[in-house]
Amino acid sequence: MIKKLPSASSKLISDRPARIFKLERSQVEAIAETVARHLERHESRSESKLVSINEATSILGIGRSSVYRMISEGTLETRHIGRRTLLLRSDLNAILEGSCDS
């Protein structure tokens, strides 16, 4: 998920039986900033009007074969950009709300 995090300091808290490392405040802040940037990128993707087949399976909570079946039945309309097959988020929302035509 996150490729590079600041390394923890090697200050070992020795009064406890488990090996626990103590992070400096600056390290915790750097980790928090990295996580926040990752979440912002993910949120901007999640608000797109078109989603991939894999994203659709996650949104609907069903498998790929079920999504492809819904496409072949006409329940889901596809858009093709290059070699990618994309689905309208509005169609997925309609299915989740129970207001699809099929």
TrEMBL record:
Gene Ontology MF terms in the entry? DNA binding
Give all residue intervals belonging to the Helix-turn-helix domain: 51-97
Q: Name one Pfam family in it.
A: HTH_17
Q: Which superkingdom?
A: Bacteria
Q: What is this protein called?
A: Helix-turn-helix domain-containing protein
Q: Which organism is it from?
A: Erythrobacter crassostreae
